[in-house]
Amino acid sequence: MNLFKVIIRNIEGSAFRSWVIFFCAELMAGFLIAVTLVIGGAQDSLRLAIQRLGADIIVVPQGSEAKMENAFLMGAPARMWMPEGVVETVRSFPGVEAVSPQFFLSTLRGASCCTVPDMFLVAYDPQTDFTLKPWLTEHLDDGLRLGEAVGGYFVYLPADQEYIQIYGTDIDLKGNLASTGTGIDQSMFFTFETARAIAEGSLTKAERVLEIPSGSISAAMIKVRPGVDPHLVAQTIQETIPGVTPVESTNLFRSQQTYLVGLLRSVAIITGILWALSLVLIGLVYSMALNERQREIGVLRALGSTRLTVLRSLLGEGLLVAFAGAAAGIALFTVAIYLFRHAIIQVLHTPFILPAPLELAGMALGGLLLVLVSVGVAALVPALRISLMDPAVAMRE
Amino acid sequence: MIELTDVHKSYLIEKNRPVHAVCGVNLHVDPGEFVIITGRSGSGKTTLLNLISGLATPTRGKVTFSGREIWRLPDRQQSLVRNQKIGFVFQFPSLIPSLTAEENVMLPTLFNPGRENPQEAARRAVALLEQVGLSDKRRAFPRQLSAGQQQRVVIARSLMNKPDLLLADEPTSDLDEQTEKEVMALFQEIHSQTKITILLVTHTRELVHYGTRSLHMVTGSIDSAPTAVSAAA
């Protein structure tokens, strides 16, 4: 027999106290990991999306900013057009290093000529592109050719098919971009040449024609020269070109970021209240349980247990149960987040990326420690009070 | 072995309302004595035992056990003395409910820094349970034992670390007459076999013949001079 065995037996013997601590720790740790996964993942997601777009400024038709953000964020197809002359105008501005136009298209919903319905499609100009280029250079030696595309992280070939059919045209999926957790993961990228071939083919092969208005583009991606303030360039565009809106990458998904900050604040308040209530409950239950065991503690002291041993034993009981509860909570909530990720994204209207296993392990460990420290503090006061009590008094009460 | 000189103990039950539990007690107990202290409830018997074991601190006077004032020692040393030199039998059910009879008997070894190996401790616990007539109950939890059986387990536990002194506080107060006799006979048997010093307090005067000496306490004081009792009860 050893102290650990006694602790385990006492945990089994104080079922009510043990379950209360278990559930409180489970909730505390679970809530904490869930909040960290969703909110932290959402922030990571936005950061990666901005990185993936790779532009300092995106120029879109006036009033289409929200549509563009929603397309990149949630993968909701968006179509918008503005004169292609915008590209040359912007290129002439001082401080602009590169400008590349893009088309925003979408597949048809419920049509047999499109393998995937409602997919956001982005066509780029390979001559001027700088957003996909780094990835293409690294993964495809010759870049994308006619009829080829790269997909977001979740774009895949349907079973038993070699191509993805878009408006009746077969598209060869050459690779997938890294996950961003946003709508980019469900989007497909190909060249202007491919887009025009799809549009031409749609005249005969598709249930509806894909229209790309002549002399129009959906957006212009802008990279500024090193040392140039993108805000000044955006300001010049705003003042000089009518009918367009320049969106700086730092302001990209601004509404989403504001929403996230609000969400974080609300969740932080709820988490704080939950933690405070849990700790008060643990302290109370601990206090009640120890009051019931006061005589038993007195007996242990009479049998030769030091104050420190009593304290260690009482805290050990609480911490062991809290450890089990916190571990269960972390496991349960993490699995739930993984399983119901898409439902959560739909409810919160916020995409989020899940961390790598090692990062997740770090978060779990941090959560576990935080819960243990908190439960330890909640249990410390009653445990200290009873371990410092005069044994004769403890036995008489 | 035990020396009490003009010992007083007062409790404050309310502000400025002290209760004098022990008033000016002088007592000397030699090694190997079996002293029975009688007295009514509230006469200070339990407090006297607590003072001797260092579980309570005297308000005034001097209490020594083997020449040392236990209550003045640091917590670790006090605990060590109680663990290795003193065995306790309480008037209330004092077994740990979550442990079996055998584990309860082994409990004092847990607090012994130079503890014997667990196999040896388990062997001794079984032997002690056998000595108190409960070898078949070693795996039973306290709730599965009668009051008399529980008290026997407590007695076995009190002997686990081979103490020099056994303090028994109303050990038969919850027992029926027959069980009371059995338990008292057990104390007597332990005393005659081990020559351990025993201080037993009870409110039942009829039990004094089990000891080698008896004392009577009235309102915190020892009523009369120590009385020798025939060892052959």
Task: Note down, in words, how this protein is organized.
The complex is a heterodimer of chains A (397) and B (233). Helix content of chain A is 57%, strand content 14%. In chain A, 42% of the residues are buried. Chain A folds into two domains: 3-47 and 257-396, no CATH class; 63-242, no CATH class. In chain A, helix 2 runs antiparallel to helix 12 (357-387) and helix 10 (307-339) runs antiparallel to helix 12. Chain A is α+β, with helices and mostly antiparallel strands. In chain A, strands 6-7-5-8-4-3-10-1-11 form a nine-stranded mixed sheet, sandwiched between helices. Chain A contains 13 helices and eleven strands. In chain A, strand 6 and strand 7 (169-176) form a beta hairpin. The longest helix of chain B is centred in the last third of the chain and has 18 residues, at 177-194. In chain B, strands 3, 5, 6, 7, 8, 9 and 10 form a seven-stranded mixed sheet that branches. In chain B, strands 2-1-4 form a three-stranded antiparallel sheet. Chain B has helices at 45-53, 75-85, 101-110, 118-131, 147-158, 177-194, and strands spanning 2-14, 17-29, 34-39, 60-65, 86-89, 165-169, 197-202, 213-218, 221-222, 227-228.
